[in-house]
Specification:
This protein has 303 residues and is α/β, with parallel strands linked by helices. The protein contains 11 helices and 8 strands. A hairpin with a 2-residue loop joins strand 4 and strand 5. The longest helix has 28 residues, at 197-224.
Length: 303
C-alpha cells in the first residue's frame, strides 16, 4: 500500500506548552501529510495545574473532532501515563520510568497494529518521557514512520509561551526537523551496500555471525524451558502482550507471570545480563521475534 492508503497519525508528548502540538500539526498539514488523528500523551493532570490547562487549551482546538484552524476532521485522542493501570502524576523513580515506557510501547504498538503511519513529535513534555518514547518507537517503527523535532526561534518561544498563540505564521521561522533515528541502521546499511563491495561482504559476514550467536542463545533458553514455558515464549515472540498470552493459551495472569519470570531468568543467564539491569517481556519479544519461524514444528504455539 502507498502512504495514502494508510491512516497518518501525529503522536506527541505533551507538557506545559500545548502550542508545540499545533505548530507541528500545522507544518505537517502544510506538507500535504494527511493527518487524521492526533494522539497526545501526558502525565495525570488536575484541572487547575499547568498540565491541566495545557490539556484544556489543546482540546479546545478540536471541537467536535474538527480542527478549528481549517475545519477538517481530525480526531484528538488523549493518553495518560500509567503504571499497572494507575495514572502517573510524574516520573520520580524507576517505577514511573517503567510505566512511561510501557505506556508508550503499548500505544505505539496499537497504532502499528492498525497499520498507521506514525509521525512522532518529541519536542513537547518532559525530556525523560521523550527519551523513553524514542526507545519504544525503535522497537515498532518501520521505514514509513517519522520522528520530528520542531525548531522555534527564541524570540518566538517567548511570545507564544504557555499556549497564548496556538498557530504561527511563516514569518516566525518555525520549522520541522526530520530525525532519522528510526531509520538510521537501515539507511546506513543500504548506503554501504550500494557504494562499497568490501563493506557489503564485511557487513554480511558480521551480520551472519551475530545472527548465528543470537540463534544459539535463543536455542539455549528454549531448550531449557518446559513445554508450557516455551508456548508462552512463542506467544511473546509473536508480539502478544501478557494479557493476550493469557487469553490465547487459556491460562491466568499468575501463570503467565510465573512462566515469564523463569524465561527472563534463563535469558539473563544466556545473555549474561547483570542482576541490576532490568528487562521484561519486551526483551523476549525482541530477541525471539524471528527464532520460531525456523522452529515451528518443534515448539508448539498452543497446548
Amino acid at each position: 500500500m502507498s502512504g495514502l492508503d494508510h491512516t497518518h497519525v501525529l503522536l506527541a508528548t505533551l507538557g506545559g506548552q500545548p502550542q508545540v502540538v499545533t505548530f507541528t500539526l500545522d507544518l505537517l498539514l502544510q506538507r500535504n501529510i494527511p493527518i487524521s488523528e492526533v494522539n497526545i500523551v501526558h502525565p495525570a493532570a488536575k484541572p487547575d495545574s499547568s498540565m491541566g490547562r495545557s490539556v484544556e487549551r489543546l482540546v479546545s482546538e478540536f471541537p467536535g473532532d474538527r480542527y478549528k484552524l481549517d475545519g477538517r476532521i481530525i480526531h484528538l485522542r488523549r493518553h495518560v501515563l500509567r503504571y499497572y493501570g494507575q495514572p502517573l502524576d510524574d516520573i520520580v523513580d524507576e517505577t514511573g520510568a517503567d510505566g512511561a515506557l510501557n505506556t508508550m510501547y503499548e500505544l505505539i504498538r496499537s497504532l502499528k497494529q492498525r497499520q498507521c503511519i506514525v509521525h512522532f513529535s518529541i519536542t513537547g513534555g518532559r525530556r525523560l518521557v521523550s527519551f523513553l518514547s524514542i526507545s519504544a518507537a525503535i522497537l515498532s517503527f518501520d521505514h514509513a514512520d517519522r520522528i520530528w523535532h520542531i525548531y522555534t526561534p527564541e524570540a518566538v518561544q517567548q511570545r507564544v509561551r504557555g499556549g497564548e498563540y496556538m498557530h504561527a505564521s511563516p514569518e516566525d521561522g518555525i520549522r520541522l526537523i526530520d530525525v532519522p533515528l528510526a531509520r538510521l541502521s537501515q539507511t546506513l546499511l543500504s548506503q554501504l551496500l550500494d557504494t562499497n563491495t568490501s563493506a557489503r561482504e564485511l557487513i554480511h559476514s558480521q551480520k551472519e555471525l551475530v545472527e548465528a550467536e543470537e540463534r544459539a542463545l535463543c536455542k539455549q533458553v528454549a531448550d531449557a524451558a518446559t513445554l508450557r514455558q516455551r508456548a508462552v515464549l512463542e506467544a511473546f515472540a509473536r508480539g502478544l502482550h501478557p494479557r493476550e498470552v493469557a487469553k490465547h493459551l487459556c491460562i491466568d495472569m499468575t501463570t503467565v507471570s510465573s512462566h515469564t519470570s523463569v524465561l527472563l531468568r534463563l535469558s539473563r543467564n544466556a545473555w549474561n545480563i547483570k542482576d541490576n539491569e532490568r528487562h521484561d517481556y519486551r526483551f523476549l519479544q525482541t530477541k525471539f521475534a524471528k527464532y520460531f519461524d525456523n522452529h515451528r514444528d518443534s515448539i508448539p504455539y498452543t497446548l
